[in-house]
From TrEMBL:
Record flagged with keyword 4Fe-4S: no
Pfam families: PepSY, PepSY_TM
PANTHER family tied to this protein: IRON-REGULATED INNER MEMBRANE PROTEIN-RELATED, PEPSY DOMAIN-CONTAINING PROTEIN
Lineage, opening ranks: Bacteria, Pseudomonadati, Pseudomonadota, Alphaproteobacteria, Rhodobacterales
Transmembrane segments: 13-37, 141-162, 182-203, 355-376, 396-423
Biological source species: Paracoccus broussonetiae subsp. drimophilus
All copies of domain PepSY, residue ranges: 60-114
Name of this chain's protein: PepSY-associated TM helix domain-containing protein
InterPro entries assigned to the protein according to its UniProt record, in alphabetical order: PepSY, PepSY-ass_TM
Keywords associated with the record: Membrane, Transmembrane, Transmembrane helix
Amino acid sequence: MGLSDLYRAVWRWHFYAGLLVLPFMITLSITGAMYVFRDKIDNWYHADLKRVQVQESQRLAPSALVAAALDAVPGTAIKYTDPVDAGASTEITVSTEAGKMAVYVNPYNGLVLGAMPDRSTLMWTVRTLHSFKYFGTYARYIIEIAAGWSILLVATGIYLWWPRGQRGGVVSVRGKPQRRVFWRDLHAVTGIFVGFFIVFLAITGMPWSGVWGGKVNEWANGSNFGYPDGVRVNVPISGQKLDEIAKTSWTLEQARIPESTGNGTAISLDDAVAQFDALGLHRGYSVSLPQKPEGLFSGSVYPNDLSQQRVVHLDQYSGQPLLDMSYADYGPLGKWLEWGINTHMGQTFGLLNQIILLAACAAIVLLALSAVVMWWKRRPSGSLGVPPLPQDRRAFRGLIVILAVGGVIFPLVGASLLVMLLLDMAYVRLRRGRPVIGV
């Protein structure tokens, strides 16, 4: 088995990986590059709802702001979101017959600025597009398949890039745009520099995937409970999960919330907010309001600073914390996953994090476009241009073992690999008796 046979085998599967992944990589890169600047974009695009003129007067009580929101949009208030800074409006989530509505209120004078369906801002739309939730539950499985194949794309790409004595096309680009070698070198050099980011984004994006992410979430949270050992509370636990009532961190999505055990007169929203302020929750926290006698006030905040992530549940009668949990209370796996997700979203290192991810996303788009141009210039007329089969089929053995290992770790990826393998075999059978496509 010569080197050319192994090279052809790797090249063939690199082509298939690109064929499957590149369209999704372009979509994910564009939407991801936008979403890392979500706060800036939303505050600009929805400035009439989200931003107010800073005033010297004190802000109105939370209950007064909720009353103003309900006057404008009748229904049941289910969540109060504290302004993240002095120039931010207060967001009240109201449950109506038509669905949940986000009502924006000026915290200084109680003027209702406007309302829109909950989670319908520009950046929430971009987020649902990025995660493929926009297209339904099953479409989310594509994320897992695309992530797994992108890792395969990088691994095979590194092998194809490896110099093997050549000088040009390693870290420099030869020729001019009219020549295929220019696009080959541009693709290879861009890929070798951006490969790390592709793998990092693929791995840290896996927690949102349909099958792998869900199973790891359950395993990381321990029997679907959601709280690490030592943080569980000795009060009744409801069947409701934290993700069902408020935006939360990935690690706590499966967390089952406690129940209030007292009776009598419940504390007011003003009292609950005062308690959350006294406990030192980071500005911009959300308060889910109790909707039934055993309900509670749940305050949660997930700012860019991981150490400030926190969720606090208050008994609605006594106002005492039933649970107070922060990033420091997560287990080792939970901390690692949250750090990866935080960095993936451009939050961990501030503006530098955002700029690096923007550059990486732009490079990924360039990588995909150069691949298309290179393929178009190489492919024979009237053919798909699939790289040739190796003369010695044993060249596939090691590659298939690697693919099988990846398939065991990521089930959906493994299933897609089998489908692609069957399609490749069918393609070869259809072309039997015809000349093999040249290099």
